[in-house]
Task: inverse folding
């Protein structure tokens, strides 16, 4: 009997996970320029940011349904970011924007970059561009 109750609890937990994750608040940003995340190129527009696990976030445009998983590592205390702000930090290399950091409620994540972006960073000094995010339903 105890084993059946355990199995039922596990099955119920897996069934409720998608429902509970949708109930979590998402952050929304209006990004006014095309940008890259890793090797993916995303067009300008409104994007929702939600957690997809440890050090993984999902950035999704609800209108176009385009999406990208963002792999990141934790950052320490910010130097220039207000801990109360929710922001996306981009580096601009010429006309190319690259998502480099995500700050949500004082927790920072550095976006993992492909080698191509690392080469860009060595060749020129980027301009930092910050886009604010707000909570959405």
Result:
């Amino acid at each position: 009997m105890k084993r059946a109750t355990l199995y039922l609890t596990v099955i119920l937990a897996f069934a409720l996970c998608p429902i509970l994750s949708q109930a979590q608040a998402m952050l929304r940003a209006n990004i006014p320029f095309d940008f890259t995340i890793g090797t993916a190129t995303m067009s300008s527009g409104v994007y929702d940011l939600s957690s997809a696990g440890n050090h993984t976030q999902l950035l999704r445009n609800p209108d176009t349904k385009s999406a990208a998983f963002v792999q990141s590592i934790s950052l320490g205390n910010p130097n220039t970011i207000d801990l109360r702000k929710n922001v996306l930090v981009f580096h601009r290399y010429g006309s190319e924007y690259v998502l480099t950091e995500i700050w949500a409620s004082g927790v920072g994540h550095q976006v993992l970059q492909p080698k191509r972006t690392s080469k860009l960073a060595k060749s020129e000094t980027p301009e930092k561009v910050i886009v604010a995010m707000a909570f959405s339903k």
Notes: Residues 25-136 form one domain. The mean pLDDT is 79. DSSP finds two helices and ten strands in the chain.
